[in-house]
Amino acid sequence: MTNYSVVGKSLPRKDDFLRATGRAMYTSDLSLPGMLYGKILRSPYPHARILNIDTRKAEKLFGVKKVVTGKDTPGVKYGVVGIFPQTFDEYGLTIDKVRYIGDEVAAVAAISEDIAEEALDLIEVEYEELPCVFDPIEAMKPGAPKIHDYAENNISLKIDRNFGEVEKAFREADYIREDEFLTQSVDHVPLELHAALANYDASGKLTLWATTQTPYYLHKHLERTLGIKGIQIRIIKPYVGGGFGDRSDGMSACDFCAALLSIKTEKPVKIMYTREEEFSTSRRRHPMRVYLKSGAKKDGTIFVRHLRIIADTGAYNSYGPVSINIPTSPITVTYRCPNVRYEGYLVYTNNQVSGAMRGHSHPQTHFAIDTQLDLIAKELGIDPIEIRLKNATKAGDITTSGAKIGSCGFTKCLNQVRDITGWDKKWGKLKEGKGIGIGTMSFASGAGFNFFGVPSSFSAATVKLMDDGTISLLTGASDIGQGSDGTLAQIAAEELGVSLDDIRVTSADTELTPVDFGTYSSRVTFMAGNAVKMAASDAKRQLFEVAADKLEANVEDLEARDRRIYVKGSPERGMSFTEAVLKTQEAKKGMPVIGKGFFYPRNIFNLVTGEGNITPAYSFGSYIAEVEIDKDTGKVKVTSFVAVHDCGTAINPMRVEGQLEGSVQMGLGYALGEELYIDKGQNLNPSFLNYRFPTALEMPKVKSVIVEENEPEGPFGAKEASEGTVVPVTPAITNAIYDAIGVRIKELPITPDKLLKALEEKDK
Fold first, then answer.
1. CA 452 to chain centre
2. What's the mean pLDDT in 482-510?
3. CA-CA distance, 418 to 663, in Å (whole number)?
4. Which of 48, 55, 363, 556 could hold 67 in an S-S bridge, CB 3.0 to 4.6 Å?
């Protein structure tokens, strides 16, 4: 491996002390003089027409400063993806009718939270209840209640893609298997609640502090829905207590309502969700019905697949149009398969809205892929790892959908995880009740889509060199707790040859930082990292041009390292970094040294046809879980986990290991317990008390192993190590359960009652 001085080191973040001591300021911690408190009135019905809203009693309540409804807005719809016009289907405040329990009807600003809450009870809304539909299969039937007028049979978007010769391949297959899998509705469960603080001042400028992953998308949404110019809006992202995709939609109701109320009152307005609102009205992972049919040769070569997914998007699209497109990637990239058909149906229901969540459609899809691979391997008499090795994608492959695979350490991951766990001595050989299982993944290092007519995959950064040798790094990328500010600082420090202590990062402020469309799709290290490296390189070039003249050397013979610039091979012929900055400023007649970087990947992906590269680089991984099962109670204990992940160069290995360990926790909950219980549109468990996510007590021992398969397109060879890491966890656990007790459950979560029922049926 290259001998880097900063990259590849497990260095702490500068702000770790602030987080650990509670001094980091989150949106919920902020306040302004004269600040009002906002609350949102939500629909008690899953589907109803709004006939009248009477706000007079609420407006007369002492301390209430403003009540707003949909009539107080420009009445402009918003959504996530601009390429499909129907995706703009949601108002900041509903105007005509409500479509799920929790839909936003009105908002109040008052001098205290208690008064704002009391005012909500005084708003009188006259509804005409409408027929409802909660199951996507029922929603697709002729005559089902229509949720949005444009969507025939409530199908927001239908995908049908054929790569290769699918029907012919099935006719030629030696073996065919068909299975159906069900996945549940789960919540992101960020520790920090949604919050927004808006301040519209006398100059007509709106400043919004928000719990967002995508400040520039939020900026665009507010510009569109409030009808004000972009130059009037400033979005600031303070510290964020977790996101996992829930805060990547662009705009939440608290963002819009806080901004609208501040404009109407000309005072600062702060809105914070309750935990119940967080569970019941924020986005959730799409529940999916996944049908998978595969054809194989006798030796286990998979050469044809048909994947069909029906996704419940709830009352509005949110990220759904992207979510239903994404499964094309895992079904064509992880394993070689020359013939693939993918059908996707994004279906409206009167349920809570679904959106992006860590792994974004991959966890549901790979649960099906990895489960079925084990089933095929068993029936063909092949070891589960061997069948994966036989079909594994390799570097240089071009998939049937036209994706070009650059670096790929998938085979290395499979072999390493097998050796580390002693798979050959354990699989099928452990005592009954104990089992071992494998899960796998591939994932994009930043997907390229077109939002608002703007390519979302580009990223920009600016580096300013100060006269004392320190560096100010400006990036629009959002650190939401994953540590991206530190990662980008390491990239800049390595490129400039300085210490991490010399870098100060300013991120995610739309008035100060260059455009970056946010933290989602595992894009920050790759996209923003490349932009930062380019900006640092641009600044370094300016220093080298001046230093070369002073040192009587060629620019290409210079090196920056250890806070010095010197001639390669002759460290004594050089100058300090600070001296180089000062001499460069002098040569530029006092102008500061500013480096600019802009990264726009060359990959070409067609969101309509699904052809091409969704990303410049893919990560790969293989995880193995070991479990113990109590057959009397059906309780599953995951005893150990080995996670092997190909992330290219690990900019900060400690941070990658943290992502792997956090992913095990999230995937563990998805496999064994987490579920939003929604009955006729009503969330029945909107609290930590009844939502079964695993705590530290349920966590197994986790061994994290990093495979560094250098990615030429990535900054210093790096690629994805965040979202994709969650994907293999669930299938590894479910496959281990089968190895332990010989029952196969295809519906998540795998709870004790499902296991006991399956065991009872097995023993009959």
1. 19
2. 97
3. 20
4. 55
Say how many CA atoms lie within 13 Å of 55 toward its Cβ: 18
Coil, strand or helix at 622: strand
Q: Which of 279, 277, 351 is nearest to 313 (CA)?
A: 351
The single-letter code of the amino acid at 741 is I
Helix (H) or strand (E) holding 455: strand 454-455
Q: Could you tell me if 446 and 615 are in contact, meaning their C-beta atoms sit under 8 angstroms apart? A: yes
Using an 8 Å Cβ cutoff, are 284 and 307 in contact? no
Distance CA 311, CA 67 (A): 36
Structure tokens at 486: 């530190």
Q: What DSSP string runs through 126-192?
A: EEEE------HHHHTSTTPPPSSTTSGGGEEEEEEEEES-HHHHHHH-SEEEEEEEE---B----SS
Place of tokens 């790969």: 620
The pTM (predicted TM-score) of the whole model is 0.96
- Describe the strand order of the beta sheet including 593-599 as a list of residue ranges: 503-507, 471-475, 459-465, 593-599
Dist. CA 132–CA 168, nearest whole Å: 42
3-state helix, strand, coil in the chain (%, to 5): 30, 30, 40
Q: Rounded to the nearest 5 degrees, what angle is found at the Cα of 629, between the Cα atoms of 623 and 632? A: 165
pLDDT in tens, 714-763: 999 999 999 999 999 999 999 999 999 999 999 999 999 999 999 999 88
Query: Which residue type is seen at 678?
Result: I
What three-state secondary structure class fits 621? strand
CA angle, residues 696, 699, 702, in degrees to nearest 5: 125
Catalogue the long-range contacts made by 294-299 (C-beta closer than 8 Å, 24 or more residues apart). Answer: 294/176, 294/177, 294/372, 294/376, 295/169, 295/170, 295/172, 295/173, 295/175, 295/176, 296/173, 296/174, 296/175, 296/176, 296/177, 296/376, 296/380, 297/173, 297/174, 297/175, 298/174, 298/175, 298/380, 299/390
pLDDT tens for each residue of 581-613: 999 999 999 999 999 999 988 767 777 788 988
The string of DSSP codes covering 263-312 is HHHTS-EEEE--HHHHHHHS-EEPPEEEEEEEEE-TTS-EEEEEEEEEEE
Q: Is the pLDDT of residue 251 over 90?
A: yes
Mean pLDDT over residues 465-488, rounded? 96
Q: What is the CA radius of gyration of the chain?
A: 27
Confidence bin at 287 (pLDDT 50/70/90): very high
Give 34: exposed, middle or buried? Use CB within 10 Å, 0-12, 13-18, 19+.
exposed
Supply 444's token pair. Answer: 């994009």
Rounded mean pLDDT, 216-239:
96
Domains recognised in the chain with CATH numbers: 16-23+458-599 (3.30.365.10), 31-130+191-242+247-281 (3.90.1170.50), 284-448+606-763 (3.30.365.10)
Contact between 458 and 447 under an 8 Å Cβ cutoff? The reply is: no
Q: DSSP 3-state assignment of 384?
A: helix
H or E segment and range at residue 557: none
